Amino acid sequence: MELTDNTDLLKQIEALKLKGEKLQRDNATTTQDILALLGLAEQGAVTVTFDEDGLMSELDIDAEARADMTAEQLLHEINAGILRAGALVRGITVSDADPRAQLNASGSLVAKLVQSIASGERPEPQKIKNDFGTVTITALMGTVTGVECQTSWIGSTPDHLISEEIVRMARTAAQQTDTMGRYA
Question: What is the predicted pLDDT for the residue at 1?
C-alpha cells in the first residue's frame, strides 16, 4: 500500500476548520447584537437553561427581583428569558463532537425541512395547554416561542412550582411539535 502526501489536504482541512471557528464567532457576535437590539442582552430576572438535546431543563426566577414584580411583569421576564436562552443556544453552540456526525445530523434536518417546504406544508405555531389551562406554551417545529399563564395562577403560585410547570410543559410542547425529528 502506497502512502501519499496528504499535506495539501490537511492544510485545506485546517483552513476550513479555522473558517468554521470564525463563522461561529461571527454568529455569536451577531446573536449578541440582535439580543441587544431587542433589549434582551442583559440578564433579566429569569434565567432559562436548555439541556444538550435542546429541551428546556431549568427556569430560575430571581427571588429578589421577583419581589417587586407584578404577575404580568414576571410573565414578560419569563418570555424574555426563553428568547434570550433560545437565541444563545441556537447561535453559539460549539461542539467537540465528530464533525461528520454533525454534518450528517444537520443534513437530515435540512432534508426534512426541504421536504416539508416542497410538500407545501406551512408550519403553524401550536399552543399546548396544561390540564388546568393555567399554562399555555407556544411552539413551532419543536422550538418553544412563548409562554402564556393565567395571571391569577402566577400571582398565587410559588416560584419553584411556576418554574417546574413551565419547564414540564415546554418540554412537552417542544416534543409534540417537533416535525424535524430532533427529539426522537
Answer: 45
